[in-house]
Amino acid sequence: MKIEKGVISSSQLTFMIIGFLQASNLLLVFSSRIVNHDSWLAILVGLVISIPIALSYAALAKEFSGKTLIQISDIIYGAYLGKMISVSYILIFLLTFSIDLRLFSDFLITYIMPETPIWAILTLLTFLSAWAVRGGIEVIARCSFIIIAMASIIILSTFVFLLSDMEFSNFLPVFDLPLKDFIQGTHINVSLYYLEIIIFLMIMAFVNKTEQVRGSMLWGLILGGVSLLILEVRNVAVLGIVSNILTSPSFNAVRYISVAEVFTRLEMFVVIMLITTVFLKVSIMYYATVLGLAQTLHLRSYLPLVTPIGIITISLCIISGDSSMELLHGGMYIWPVFILPIQLFPVLSLFIVKLRKKSKKLGANEE
User: Fold this and answer.
1) Does a structural domain hold residue 365?
2) Structural domain count, the chain
């Protein structure tokens, strides 16, 4: 039985990927603390490395049109091994969902609502996303265009307003760091920003024109990556080395905007952008988690799982660390190493599928 009956367009898939990546603005500090003012270069190299891997995701979805990542794993690896692999994916989705939600809650407490208890923010954000998830993939997809349009306008307008405050000497000397640090920073960009789009293997099954999935994935990744590149160039050009020690460089950079002493204090637009894009990203991860779990358990609907998973997520957020600095350390040195093999596993799955098809073709020719 098909759990999700919604259908989305290829353009909506592109918008969702762009918004998903724009929400990673909150995580840029993970790599910038390692590669310093060369963070823009690490973002660009990470994007180039991620493109062929993302295209392999699209190729796998095309091989199994109408199937999600969970269903694909069952088909390729069988009932038992497939279920183990599916559970691994679901746990990764749930943990990523929890960590991103916790980081955003810490941001709000640090800069906007310092007196608000974290459980209150987590509960509000989680159940707001639960509303979207209950509406299905079509509801989330319809929200994506408005969200990325607003976020893109904010990104471009703040960049233009800050041109007079930018010091491009902050980028010099280029590549003045050990190679291992640059590799580590690029690794963080690949695993924490770009390859998180593995989650869209849970959504590509609902695109109405499967032949356009490859283009949607490619353009979504490129445009989302360019958004991150613009943000990082802006932050480094305005803040210089200070951007490496701030928990939210984007918020602090926009504070410098002053147009004729009339347009000032525009950092609230950064907050609006983060709230909307993080809402989109969290909703997508929430949806993928409950849908994947429902398919693994062979349920008729994922709706009974929405509230329990929300409660579990809030609990995980609260116990995930005593402070955002602990999460920052984990995001720099632990999580990228742990998550990358899972993100590369669909590439292995595609290789196995291609190998099996080639073997069958050779066998047929021999007969």
Assistant:
1) no
2) 1
Domain annotation covers residue 288: yes
- In 3D, which of 146, 195, 178 has the Cα closest to residue 46? 195
**Domain extent at residue 351:** 10-359
Rounded CA-CA distance 339/334 in Å is: 9
Residues 6+ apart with CB under 8 A from 360: none
- Taking only the tens of pLDDT, the chain with its 367 residues reads 567 778 999 999 999 999 999 998 877 888 888 888 888 999 999 999 999 999 999 999 999 988 999 999 999 998 889 999 999 999 999 998 888 898 888 888 888 888 888 889 899 999 899 999 999 999 999 999 999 999 999 999 989 888 888 888 888 888 888 999 999 999 999 998 899 999 999 999 999 888 889 999 999 999 999 999 999 999 999 988 887 777 788 888 888 887 666 666 778 888 888 889 999 999 999 999 999 999 999 898 999 999 999 999 999 888 876 666 777 777 788 888 889 999 999 999 999 998 988 887 766 666 5
Is 364 a domain residue?
A: no
Burial class (CB in 10 A: 0-12, 13-18, 19+), 100: buried
Task: For residue 366, tell me if it sits in a domain.
Answer: no
Tokens 């939210």 sit at which residue?
248
The answer to whether residues 147 and 279 touch, using CB atoms and an 8 Å cutoff, is yes
Contact between residue 323 and residue 32 where contact means Cβ atoms under 8 Å apart: no
The enclosing domain of 301 has a CATH number of: 1.20.1740.10
Burial of 112 (0-12, 13-18, 19+ CB in 10 A): middle
